[in-house]
């Protein structure tokens, strides 16, 4: 493709929707065909989408950021958070975002969780399932120094959040009600980027990592950098992904 694919979602009508560069697009896998649905950030040629996920009502939330000069170094406050609705209209929720990242919804669908990486915070919003509107933003967890930068995120069936810590070499489990860290799972690589549950019963966790910006000496110490890891035996399960309703 002609631009980076930053997130992908199942589509109720079949195949997929993706974020590609600064476009929401439809992907037909067998035909290898990509069709643009809509462009965002058209006034910012240096921007691209980053993380995205479908909400419980089938809307696709995804946010943008400026292209990085090197990992986590970029022009600040260039990104925004968007929603693609099932009628293929787009709404912008807010701008001034650094790196739009991990996102998910509480089990009762009343709270939207969101990460802007360079704020070093996991935030929560009140969430209206009927309209897809968000409001009343607040921080529920601030990362410790050794946890470094919050990246991708997912929720488990107990309503706890899992956050991949970029440059922190770990995934942490948080209680969004108390703001406490409950668990830390360390990985043999520093640049853990995202996490999700999978496997037959969603009891396995899959964690992605990056190798971008690592020199030869660093890579020789962490030869698995850039790999995907499977974590078993966590004792909790994840929530299946919602398909895009459009």
UniProtKB/TrEMBL annotation:
Binding positions (substrate): 48, 50, 68, 101
Protein name, entry field: Regucalcin
The protein's Enzyme Commission number: 3.1.1.17
Major localisation: cytoplasm
Any one biological process term the GO annotation gives: L-ascorbic acid biosynthetic process
Cofactor dependence: Mn(2+); Zn(2+); Ca(2+); Mg(2+)
Family note: Belongs to the SMP-30/CGR1 family.
Keywords: Calcium, Cytoplasm, Hydrolase, Metal-binding, Zinc
Active-site feature positions: 151 (proton donor/acceptor)
GO molecular function (one): calcium ion binding
Ligase among keywords: no
The reaction(s) this protein catalyses: D-glucono-1,5-lactone + H2O = D-gluconate + H(+)
Every SMP-30/Gluconolactonase/LRE-like region domain range: 3-211
Top-level division of the source organism's lineage: Eukaryota
A Pfam family per the record: SGL
């Amino acid at each position: 493709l002609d631009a980076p694919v930053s997130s992908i979602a199942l589509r109720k009508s079949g195949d997929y929707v993706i974020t590609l560069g600064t476009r929401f697009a439809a992907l037909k896998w067998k035909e290898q065909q990509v069709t643009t649905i809509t462009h965002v950030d058209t006034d910012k040629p240096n921007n691209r989408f980053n993380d995205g996920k479908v909400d419980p009502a089938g809307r696709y939330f995804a946010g943008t950021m400026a292209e990085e000069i090197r990992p986590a170094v970029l022009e600040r406050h260039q990104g925004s958070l968007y929603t693609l609705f099932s009628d293929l209209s787009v709404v912008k929720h807010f701008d001034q975002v650094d790196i739009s990242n991990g996102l998910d919804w509480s089990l009762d669908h009343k709270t939207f969780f969101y990460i802007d990486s360079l704020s070093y915070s996991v935030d929560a919003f009140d969430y209206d399932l009927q309209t897809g509107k968000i409001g009343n933003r607040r921080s529920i967890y601030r990362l410790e120094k050794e946890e470094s930068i919050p990246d991708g995120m997912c929720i488990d069936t107990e309503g706890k959040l899992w956050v991949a810590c970029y440059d922190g070499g770990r995934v942490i489990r948080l209680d969004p009600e108390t703001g406490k860290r409950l668990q830390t799972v360390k990985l043999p690589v520093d640049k853990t980027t995202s996490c999700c549950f999978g496997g037959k019963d969603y009891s396995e966790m899959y964690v992605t990592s990056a190798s971008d910006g690592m020199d030869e000496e660093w890579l020789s110490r962490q030869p698995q950098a850039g790999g995907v890891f499977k974590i078993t035996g966590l004792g909790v399960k994840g929530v299946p992904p919602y398909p895009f309703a459009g």
